[in-house]
Amino acid sequence: MEKKICVYAISKNEIKFVDRFYNSVKEADYVCVLDTGSTDGTYEKFKQLGVITAQKKYDFFRFDQARNDSLKLIPNDAEICICVDIDEFFQPGWSKIVKKEWKDNTSRARYRYTWNFNKDGSEGIVFMADKMHKNKMFTWVNPVHEVLSPVKDEPYITIDLPQVKLYHKADDHKSRKSYLPLLELAVKEDPTNDRNMHYLGREYMFYGQYEKAIETLQRHLSMPTAVWKDERASSYRFIGFCYKQLGKRKEAEENFLKAILQADYIREPYFDLGQFYYENKEYLKSAVVFEQMLKIDSRYLNYMSLPKCWGKEPYDYLAYCYYKLGNVDKALQNTDKALSFGEDDRLLANRKYFESLKKG
After folding, report:
1. Could you state, in order of their start, the residue ranges of all structural domains in the chain?
2. Does the predicted TM-score (pTM) go above 0.85?
């Protein structure tokens, strides 16, 4: 008997995304949406589309509670559940892949998730998301940046479905002002959760609360459970950025270097250090760091992998560094590499200038 799929979501004032969302998920056997208080017609639109819909308003909103309430809408005969946000959409044919690859012993699956897109339409941050799971086996935890947690403390099997692609195109004007208090609550509720500690430090950095960010990120690095090198490197990078904003150059450089030592196989720490030296007009150091960074040719699909590290920016920095170091040939070479990512008037002007220098 073929397994049934249910896509479930929460919504609030998402009317502009409803049609795109529904057209991508209607391949599922069921679609369930819990509306949390829309006033723009989102709730009514989903009802018109025949979606299994309910509305619940919260005096105090937290994402895990809303997600768990949305789980209650899922029919019992749906075995495979996929949590999708309304501003996300699948590429066609995804449901056939899921049903084909999902085995009797499968409990969870990861799929290819494009979190954002660059201005030229190319993919930005891409990683393997994991919000696909077996019905009644998981619950949501954390007030924000919520994650699935198994109901029973038992091993389970997760499969990878990279051919299933989910795209995210969000409303850039939507406020995230609730994130900081919810993250503070998350850390208060569970001070041993290293991921939330990292997220909280990052959020303080976003808000320009640099001293608080440094203190919180250092707490993250001191936690015995904070063992993921990529994330530890990010904490060092963020600390370095905060010190840079505070004008503490020595401390900034030290933490950028620690980020590289923590994860020397990813480009992001090198980019930050190379940019730091560039901003301080230490062009030889900057060139050395960017050249070392470009030796890394494998991009890890995680939420910390930044598109700028894999685009024209490193070559643009290198071109200027080599120009300042008197090496016009390498300045030209790197300008051409930067231009290979697309035409740019400034880069074209730079190239023309470097060529004039070479001709004398």
Report:
1. 4-168, 175-266, 285-297+308-360
2. yes
Round to whole Å and give the CA distance between 36 and 22. Answer: 18
| Whether the Cβ atoms of residue 350 and residue 322 lie closer than 8 Å to each other | no
170 pLDDT tier (thresholds 50, 70, 90): confident
144 Cβ partners below 8 Å, 6+ apart?
62, 63, 178, 179, 182, 183, 186
The pLDDT mean for the chain works out to 96
Kindly list the distances between the CA atom of residue 83 and the CA atoms of 28, 112, 253, in Å, as whole numbers in the listed order. Answer: 12, 14, 41
Residue in the structure block whose two tokens are 């201005």: 119
Pick the CATH number of 4-168 from 3.40.50.300, 1.50.10.20, 3.30.390.30, 3.90.550.10: 3.90.550.10
Fold of 175-266: 1.25.40
Report, as an integer, the average pLDDT of 30-57.
98
What is residue 1's predicted lDDT score, i.e. its pLDDT?
Answer: 74
Buried (b) or exposed (e) across 3-37, using 16+ Cβ within 10 A? Answer: bbbbbbbbbbbbbebbeebbebbebbbbbbbbbbe
Report DSSP letters for 217-254, one per residue.
HHHHHH-TT---HHHHHHHHHHHHHHHHHTT-HHHHHH
Q: Which two tokens stand for residue 305?
A: 């992998």
Q: For the residues 158-171, what does the mean pLDDT come to?
A: 95
- In eight-state DSSP terms, residue 326 is T
Least confident span in 31-35, 80-84, 343-347 = 343-347
